[in-house]
Amino acid sequence: MKKKVLVFVATAALAVSAFGAMANAEGEKIGVAMPTQDLQRWNQDGANMKAQLEEKGYEVDLQYAGNDVATQVSQIENMIANGDQVLVIASIEGDSLGTVLAQAKENNIPVIAYDRLIMNTDAVSYYATFDNYLVGKTQGQFLVDALDLDNADGPFNLEMITGDPGDNNVNFFFGGAMDVLQKYIDDGKLVVPSGQMTKDEVATANWATDAAQARFENILSSNYADGTQLDAVLASNDSTALGVINALAANYDNDVYPIITGQDCDLPNVPHIIDGTQAMSVFKDTRTLAAQVVDMVDAIVKGEEVPVNDTETYDNGTGIIPSFLCEPVAVTLDNYKEVLIDSGYYTEDQFE
Ligand code: BGC
Questions:
Q1: Is the CB of 242 under 6 A from ligand 1?
Q2: Higher pLDDT, 88 or 11
Q3: I need a labelling partner for 87 at 20 to 30 A (CA). Which of 25, 143, 172, 222 fits?
């Protein structure tokens, strides 16, 4: 492992010197490719990146692709053709950008993978994200604590839902949660009545709320219509948690309401945290991630050392990508005001 780290630190250093000092910020154009405006978080990500880059004097080419891979590819082609100096990309599907990023590499344009790792291309220079494995572990541990699994006899009924199988983050979210929960499933303290437990069985194409809702409507009518209680739902993020909440509202009135996890503190989910229909969400402050990426862009453009704090975890199939991992925070009814409102991320009237 050590050897690998050294090799890749060297690669990172080379990446800087290979691009050299390009210029000063003034007037340089940065391409920012975001997946979709459907989810609040990506709107915040895009807006924060744009504002913070502009503050440093950059021109920003910010594009949203409506969750359509072909649209994202053509947006990136345009960024390359327009002479953007650095590309910051939150991919829709991690495996679909190899060809277009080969063009970026030919044109000597550094690429930062934003939030989601871009797979199987050697054109990615850096990765900036939240600690995705920790997000999954935090969700799993939340369920362990809420059900008091180390002391209670159980068994408790659990169902699970994660996101798009083409999003590399899913491996870390679901993997991190399962690293915590699997032992309780093996011990029989947690039971999954639907029997759906593999990543493919619990995945949700495009992280879509409708698809999550439809799958849970089926699960509820097949396994819980007889009054069986659902104790907990591991949901990897808020858009899938919302589908679960919608399905429960129309198809479940058993005595116990399940403990549901989530991620993002998305605007439509915060009222559910407040009224108790979603127990928690993992907050990833997009201002922090944007600030980090802006520092990375600035260092690349100026030929300075690029700040990273992880050179071991994220292999995109061509080697480890030097990464910066920000820290996620668990949010519940107890701390949502402090974390989301006092910090200025949202205003209270946005939930009314
Ligand atoms: C992000 C999550 C988000 C999900 C759906 C993931 O890659 O890390 O924050 O909820 O995509 O957009």
A1: no
A2: 88
A3: 172
For residue 112, the cross-strand partners are 88, 126
Q: How far is the CA of 194 from the centre of ligand 1 (A)?
A: 25
How far is it, in rounded angstroms, from Cα 123 to Cα 225?
51
Over the range 104-138, which residues count as b (16 or more CB within 10 Å of their CB) and which as e?
Answer: beeeebbbbbbbbbbbebebbbbbbbbbbbbbbbb
**Tally of helices (H runs) and strands (E runs) in the chain:** 12, 12
Q: Identify which of 114, 132, 136, 110 has the alpha carbon closest to the alpha carbon of residue 123.
A: 110
d(CA 124, CA 104): 10
Report how far apart the first and last C-alpha atoms of the chain are (Å, whole number): 51
With contact defined as beta carbons under 8 Å apart, do 241 and 278 qualify? yes
Q: From the CB of 207, is ligand 1 less than 6 Å away?
A: yes
Would you say the CB of residue 277 lies under 6 angstroms from ligand 1?
Answer: no
User: What predicted TM-score, i.e. pTM, was given to this entire model?
Assistant: 0.91
**Three-state DSSP class for residue 297:** helix
pLDDT in tens, 298-328: 999 999 999 999 999 999 999 999 999 999 9
Compute, in angstroms, the gap from residue 79 CA to the centroid of ligand 1. 23
Best residue among 34, 38, 39 to mutate for probing ligand 1's pocket (most ligand atoms within 8 Å of CB) is: 39
Q: Is 129 in the pocket of ligand 1 (CB under 6 A)?
A: no
pLDDT in tens, 121-167: 999 999 999 999 999 999 999 999 999 999 999 999 999 999 999 99
Residue nearest to atom 5 of ligand 1 (CA): 207
Tokens of 22: 């390009």
Query: In angstroms, what is the span from residue 232 Cα to ligand 1's centroid?
Result: 21
Using most ligand atoms within 8 A of CB, pick from 42, 138, 167, 266 the residue to mutate for ligand 1: 167
Note the pLDDT tens digit of each residue in 29-74. 999 999 999 999 999 999 999 999 999 999 999 999 999 999 999 9
Asked whether 263 lines ligand 1 (CB < 6 A), one says yes
Q: How far is the CA of 118 from the centre of ligand 1 (A)?
A: 14
Pairwise CA distance, residues 13 & 7, whole Å: 10
Q: Is the pLDDT of residue 114 over 90?
A: yes
